[in-house]
Amino acid sequence: MSGTIRFAPSPTGYLHEGHLLSALFVWAAAKKWNLRVHLRIEDHDQGRARKEYIDSIREDLAWLGFTYDSESIQSDRSEIYQRVLQHLAERGLVYPCYCSRKQLLAENPRSETGEVIYQGKCRPKCSTESGIEKPGGSPPSFHSVEDDIRAGFHSVEDDSLENHSIFRIPDSELPHSLRVVVSDKVIEWCDERLGTFYENPKKQCGDFPIRDRDGYWTYQFAVCVDDLAQGITHIIRGEDILNSTARQIALTEMIADACQGDATLHFPPYQRPKYLHHPLIVDSTGKKLSKREHAHSLRQDKETGTTPEQLFGRLLFKVGIAQSDTPTPLDAALGQIIRIL
Ligand SMILES: [Zn+2]
Questions:
Q1: Ligand 1 centroid – CA 120 distance (Å)
Q2: Fewest CB within 10 angstroms: 99, 108, 155, 235, which?
Q3: Is residue 122 included in any domain, yes or no?
Q4: How many other C-beta atoms are found inside a 10 Å radius of the C-beta of residue 241?
Q5: How far is the CA of 249 from the centre of ligand 1 (A)?
Q6: Residue 293 predicted with pLDDT over 90
Q7: What's the structural domain count of the chain?
């Protein structure tokens, strides 16, 4: 095997056609480049992840015929995320942000895609691009999500500060996200299908959260730690993640550097993975389908007697890879994708 690729669904619903298209690309790439496949269940958002969806991911993949070499689930990895956070904090690369969602929307400009570009309101004044300088002070320590839950911090959802008094939370315990200090630097990266991009995460989103106000690790953080820790060499995913790539490269490099001396983490040496973002399933106006618009799950197809071969054929036709919607076995479906990789 010459590397590792991952299939990384979030268990916030049943798998649908969008996931199936991603899976076909991932397994086609694995076949083409002789890669191990790692199934990563991305349940970092504990508010939305459900056990029944986790079970269904494994069952649906087995039914479709996708086999994998290893598996991990993000909710098992909190200790590693906490350690990485501590390494970043020791280098002054993380700070608490007390801005409410309402404030973030009102006080910051937005990108073309509507994303908030954080202007650094809570960034310590003594910060530099290589971190926050703490003259003579000890490195900040961030308590774990579990500590937060125990302290009742977790239940504080309301944005209005008045309500916080009922919990008697000291100032430092007010709801906050943790943001990472992003350098003002253009990242040059190459997509195997779409070519070279030059992007500056500072301009795209500014300092971004690695832990949210509810105490959950963010998608960006968990993905970067896992890709690094699991030695992922190839990242294939939908074009909807395209503008996360530069910031993930920046954060992964930061993590790799900050954790270098910690042999107990067992991180392999960092090498930037190859990236490929595949097209999405779109509606007749060219708009990406939302989760709701992916009207039915693969599970429902299975229950109504549709075969995996019928699903593969229909999907490849729908995205313009096949000329007709003839039922297609998995191997043949992968072969059709390999031709366009
Ligand atoms: Zn803030």
A1: 6
A2: 155
A3: yes
A4: 14
A5: 23
A6: no
A7: 1
Taking the centre of ligand 1 as the mean of its atom positions, its distance from the CA of residue 121, in whole angstroms, is 5
Kindly give the distance from the C-alpha atom of residue 148 to the centroid of ligand 1, in angstroms, as a whole number. 19
Alpha-carbon gap, residue 196 to 21, rounded angstroms: 24
Cα 97 to ligand 1 centroid, rounded to whole Å: 4
pTM for the predicted model, two decimal places: 0.87
Distance, CA of 175 to chain centre: 23
306, part of any domain: no
**CATH number of residue 129's parent domain:** 3.90.800.10
Q: Find out whether 6 and 230 touch, Cβ atoms under 8 Å.
A: yes
Residue 57 lies in a domain: no
The answer as to whether 55 is a domain residue is no
163-221: pLDDT as tens digits: 333 333 345 678 999 999 999 999 999 999 999 999 999 999 999 999 999 999 999 99
N residues, the chain: 341
